[in-house]
Amino acid sequence: MKHVRRGMAAIASLALTATLLAMGSQPATAAPAAPPQGHGTCTAVPSSSGAPKGAAWACYEAKPGASAPAPATARALAPAPRDDQPDPESPEALCGKQPPNNSTRLVYCIEKELRWTYYGPDQKEVIGIAEGRLYIYSKLKAVPHSNWKESVIVTLDSKTDSIPAVELVLQAICTGQCSASGPLVARLSKVGEHVGGSIDYNSPIGPDAEALVQPQYHAMLDLLVPGELLPPTNTDWVGPQIRCDGKTGEWTGCVIPEHMANVTVRRSLYRAAAITYEWAQNNLTTLSMGTKNKPLHYKKMTEEEKNRRRDLTCNLAPDRFVKDPSVPDDSCDEFPFAATQEGGKAGTQCVDILPQQVGGVWDVSNVKVLRNGNVKTNAPCVRGHVTNKDNVDAGSKEFGAAVRSDRILDGEAFQVIIAP
Q: What is the mean pLDDT of residues 275-291?
C-alpha cells in the first residue's frame, strides 16, 4: 500500500506540474495598441461613441501653418490699407511665416494648420478627416496704453461626410505682469465656414516701469459626433515675447523687442535731410551711422542737453557751421542725431556736405563735399546744409515720433531707413 500511495502522489505532482506549465505556455491577453505615431495626439475611440464605422483612433494636429490667409479672411483679421499699397505688417505679409518672420516690432500673426482625423485599427486607414486653420493676429499699437487685442479666426477648409462637425477651444494666458480674457470656442460643420472672435490683454505697467510678458495658448480639439463628445486632445504653444513700459511718451504701451526699432525718413518729404543721413550711411562706414549692422542708440535727455550737443556739433569754434547762400533758410542738420549715444561730436570732426537737387531729383550722387572729405571713412559725424523746415520736421515728425511709437528706450538700438 505504501508503494501505491507514493505512486499516486507522484502522479498527482506530475499532473499539477503539467497544469502549471500549460498555463504558463498560454499567450497573455494582448495589450492595447500604442497610439498612432506622426499624426499629432491620438486617443482611442470608445465603441459607443457614435463615431464612423471602423474608427478606432481619433487624432488631432495643430502644427505651424505655411500660407497666408485667403483675402476674405485677411480682411476679417485686419482691413486693407486705404491706398491699396502693400502693407508689410498685414496678415497676408505675416501669417504663414515662422518666427521671427511672422512679426514686426508692433504686429504679429500666428497661424496653425488644424487636422481632425479618424484612423482604423491598423492606424493607417483614414476613416474620416477634417482640415482647417487657426489665425491669431494683433497690432500692438492699435489701442493706446498697455492693452492689446488679438483677432482670432478658425476656418474649416475641408472634411469628409463621416465627420459631422469639429470644435476648437482656445484659451490664452499671459505670463508676467499681464492678463488675458476668457476662452474662445469655435464649432464648425460646413466647409468654407469660419468663426471669429478676439482675446484681450492688459499689462498694468506704471510710470517709469517696464515688464516682459508673453502670451501662451492652450487649444482643445474635439471631433463632434451625434449625441456625444469624444475625449478632447490638448496642444500648447507660445506667442512672441512682448515688452510693455511706461517710460516713453504720454501713456504706456508695448512692443516686440526682438525686432529693432527704426526711423524711416523719406526723400520725397525731407529732401536734403534724408540725403544727408543716406550719404553718411554710405560714406562714414567705420562708425555707427544707423544701419542694421551698425545701429544708433537712443539717449534720453532734456531739451537743454540736446541743444548743448547740437551747439558742440554746429555752433562752437573753431569750426562753426557756415550757411550756404544757395540753400533757402539754411541750417546745420547733424547726423548722428544729437539725442543718440553716437551724437554730440565736435564739429571739427564732421564732414560738411551740400546735398543738391538735380533735375528735380534728390540723390546722394549729387552731394558736394565741402570739408573733411579726406577723412570721411573714419569721421564720426556729418553736417548737412538743409532748409530749417526739413531739418526740424525730420527730427520731430520722424525721429521723435518713432521714439514714441516704437517705444525706443534709453540706450536701445535703432536703425535709420531712407525710403523714396
A: 97
